[in-house]
């Protein structure tokens, strides 16, 4: 009877657990306290006996305490355990090597057969999947990127700490990328196999091998070593290691951007390996995707490793500069000295040259002191070998044969194809050099065709524009303010060549403080991007004075050097220094990983462009295109994440307009070079060694054998049971509340309360 009234509370061993929410207990307690005060201290008739009022107070107090007690939800908790037979734990290798196929059947299919056999003989199993981590259940797919058997066994030991298991069964091909396989191989070679090398387990261990050596054909490009970068116009070597059946003759192809470059045939040695080297001479700077591949046969177990794409970044080791001057001058001398002393510059310089008139004068070649100017070879055969051409106060007409405007056309096309061109001022430059209406005029950043006076000889100090404060070419200080201060203290120029102002899509970095053209300041230093190349026009021939003035103030010639270093760097810049640049977070990506693409947009003056609409595509090797649509932030940058679904080189092409200067592109390589698939031969030696270390508590079962795991039938485990007996719902609680509340109500009525 008492057990019913108390709902079993207190009728056994256990502890009391108060499960009510603290905030609820506090709220109910406060409400009860207010109700108690109102009930006792409210207005009453005079002359009532105080004894009834005291009884009412006790009754309300006890009744309200019962309510608070019920809200606190006291629960009696009893915990005990019951004994059951130990469980059979099965760990299934879920890594990618378990998914390889042989004649249409995968190792994973064999795993399912093993599990069915174990269930038939041993009933319910505790199943886990392991690769680089351990998780409950059988694997849905076999795509894990790493196998760490030691970590999996340690995790099982931790989960069943203090218990005994009937056994632990591991189903695997033995391709372990953790420390265990390497440790056991080292110990076996030194006869130092010890039990402390392996995890301690709560039950005997059975290792079931899936797959057999020699059952599968796998021709693969095991590795490609490129060094990550190469130098422009300098040969570099791609070294590939080919793996397959011993003695086989294998054709190996080298491709660039999906186009065949070279093919060689190698003979695999007795170990089934061969090394092949490809020598490549890059002709352009930037990122380029190369791929080494071998044929894929119908029986190839892992077709994904038959090619190996890599991205190589081509950089300039030395900048090759052609300086052509019409006459010796301080400007020519200073610039030539600067270029010669820079170890990163390979300079070819021509000045004090023979003209056509020298040849027609009747003098023999050996009687002339001036050197011959090989202009035809320079501007035809050799032009593409230069990164930069400097025309310094040079008038082409006295040197080029009649009707050779095609040489100027070659220079203009050289710029459009990615070359760089500088023209400086002087009495043989711009309109004084008859460059108006020539192919070169079409690529310069200033318009030519001045009639009348073509120069202004009044001294002036060039004025820095807003674009000039941020452009990398004229940035002479660490900050914009420091850059302006530096330009403001540089000396005055002797005069300038006149032009008709800026050409389309050009930027003025320095302007004349007084002269104007079409209500705009006359440009003194202007830059332009034409096609894939860049041009610069400096309409003065006295930049050498910037060196002297700084030296006079004890600062050396740093302003002059910084200016021309900046100019050289910007003019022959890599694709990563263009106005529209797209950069991948990684150049070599594993299939399935996400790569971050960052697009940076800058204007003609190289300031950031906000709210620029960037469109383009990521083009996969199959030709499938994934659209890119972004809007830049205030920094001029926009980012997106892309998860490639195909192996091979992916090209990213973006633009913010139709002009070449407003386009950017890059490339990244995607491979499925999972370490699990580097070698797919099952490692029987490792599994046998591991079983031997466990001695009587270890067993190895070869592939195809009957599954007879090592079990401990005496193993038991304790299954905890928890019983909860809540008192708040017991009938006695309701009875006590009714009793105390009734007593308080009776006393209240007797004392004259309502």
How does this structure look, described?
The chain has about 750 residues and is an alpha/beta fold. It is about 25% helix and about 30% strand. The protein folds into five domains: about 1-80 and about 725-750, no CATH class; about 120-215 and about 680-715, no CATH class; about 220-315, Sandwich (Immunoglobulin-like); about 320-575, Class I glutamine amidotransferase (GATase) domain (Rossmann fold, 3-Layer(aba) Sandwich); about 575-670, Sandwich (Immunoglobulin-like). It is built from 16 helices and 37 strands. The strands form nine sheets. It has an eight-stranded mixed beta sheet, sandwiched between helices. A six-stranded mixed beta sheet has the order 7-6-3-8-9-36, sandwiched between helices. A five-stranded mixed beta sheet has the order 11-17-16-13-14, with no helix packed on it. The two termini are about 40 Å apart.
């Amino acid at each position: 009877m008492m057990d019913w009234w108390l709902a079993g509370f207190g009728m056994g061993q256990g502890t009391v657990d108060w499960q009510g929410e603290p905030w609820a207990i506090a709220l109910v307690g406060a409400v009860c306290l207010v109700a108690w005060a109102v009930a006792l201290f409210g207005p009453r008739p005079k002359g009532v006996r105080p004894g009834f009022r005291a009884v009412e107070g006790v009754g309300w107090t006890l009744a309200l305490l019962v309510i608070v007690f019920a809200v606190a939800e006291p629960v009696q908790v009893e915990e005990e355990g019951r004994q059951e037979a130990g469980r059979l734990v099965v760990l299934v290798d879920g890594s990618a090597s378990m998914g390889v196929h042989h004649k249409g059947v995968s190792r994973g299919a064999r795993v399912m057969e093993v599990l069915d056999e174990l269930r038939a003989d041993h009933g319910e199993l505790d199943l886990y999947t392991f690769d680089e981590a351990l998780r409950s259940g059988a694997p849905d797919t076999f795509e894990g990127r790493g196998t760490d058997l030691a970590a999996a066994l340690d995790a099982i030991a931790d989960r069943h700490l203090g218990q005994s298991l009937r056994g632990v069964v591991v189903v695997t091909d033995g391709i372990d990328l953790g420390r265990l396989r390497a440790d056991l191989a080292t110990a076996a070679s030194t006869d130092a196999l010890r039990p402390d090398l392996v995890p301690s387990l709560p039950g005997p261990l059975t290792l079931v091998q899936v797959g057999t050596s020699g059952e599968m054909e796998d021709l693969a490009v095991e590795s490609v070593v490129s060094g990550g970068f190469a130098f422009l116009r300098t040969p570099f070597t791609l070294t590939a290691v080919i793996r397959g059946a011993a003695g086989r003759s294998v054709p190996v192809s080298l491709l660039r951007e999906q186009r065949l470059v070279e093919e060689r045939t190698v003979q695999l040695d007795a170990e089934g390996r061969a090394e092949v080297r490809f020598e490549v001479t890059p002709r352009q700077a930037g990122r380029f995707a190369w791929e080494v591949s071998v044929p894929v046969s119908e029986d190839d177990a892992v077709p994904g490793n038959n090619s190996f794409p890599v991205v190589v970044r081509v950089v300039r080791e030395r900048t090759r500069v052609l300086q052509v001057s019409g006459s010796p001058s301080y400007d020519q001398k200073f610039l030539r000295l600067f270029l010669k002393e820079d170890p990163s510059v390979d300079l070819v310089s021509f000045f004090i040259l023979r003209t056509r008139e020298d040849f027609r004068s009747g003098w023999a070649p050996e009687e002339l002191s001036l050197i011959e100017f090989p202009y035809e070879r320079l501007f035809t055969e050799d032009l593409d070998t230069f990164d930069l051409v400097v025309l310094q106060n040079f008038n082409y007409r006295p040197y080029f044969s009649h009707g050779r405007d095609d040489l100027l056309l070659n220079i203009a096309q050289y710029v459009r194809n990615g070359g760089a061109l500088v023209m400086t001022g002087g009495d043989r430059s711009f309109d004084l050099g008859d460059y108006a209406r020539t192919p070169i005029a079409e690529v310069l950043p200033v318009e030519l065709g001045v009639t009348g006076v073509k120069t202004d000889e009044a001294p002036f100090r060039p004025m820095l524009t807003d674009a000039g404060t941020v452009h990398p070419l004229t940035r002479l200080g660490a900050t914009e303010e420091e850059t302006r201060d530096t330009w403001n203290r540089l000396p005055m120029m002797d005069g300038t060549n006149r032009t008709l102002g800026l050409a389309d899509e050009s930027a003025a970095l320095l302007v004349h403080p007084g002269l104007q053209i079409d209500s705009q300041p006359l440009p003194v230093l202007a830059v332009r991007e034409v096609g894939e190349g860049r041009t610069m026009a400096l309409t003065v021939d006295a930049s050498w004075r910037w060196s002297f003035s700084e030296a006079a103030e004890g600062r050396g010639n740093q302003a002059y050097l910084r200016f021309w270093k900046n100019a050289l760097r910007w003019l022959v810049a890599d694709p990563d220094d263009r106005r529209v640049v797209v950069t991948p977070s990684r150049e070599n990506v594993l299939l399935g990983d996400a790569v971050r693409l960052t697009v940076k947009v800058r204007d003609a003056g190289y300031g950031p462009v906000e709210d620029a609409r960037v469109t383009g595509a990521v083009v996969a090797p199959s030709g499938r295109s994934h659209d890119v649509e972004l809007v830049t932030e205030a920094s001029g940058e926009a980012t997106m994440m892309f998860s490639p679904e195909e192996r091979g080189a992916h090209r990213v092409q973006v633009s913010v307009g139709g002009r070449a200067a407003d386009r950017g592109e890059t490339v990244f390589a995607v491979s499925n070079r999972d370490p699990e698939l580097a070698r797919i031969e099952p490692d029987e030696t490792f599994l046998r060694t591991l079983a031997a270390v466990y001695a009587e508590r270890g067993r190895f079962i070869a592939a195809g054998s009957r599954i007879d795991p090592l079990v401990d039938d005496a193993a038991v485990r304790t299954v905890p049971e928890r019983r909860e007996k809540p008192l708040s719902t017991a009938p006695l609680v309701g009875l006590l509340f009714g009793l105390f509340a009734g007593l308080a109500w009776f006393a209240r009525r007797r004392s004259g309360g309502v």
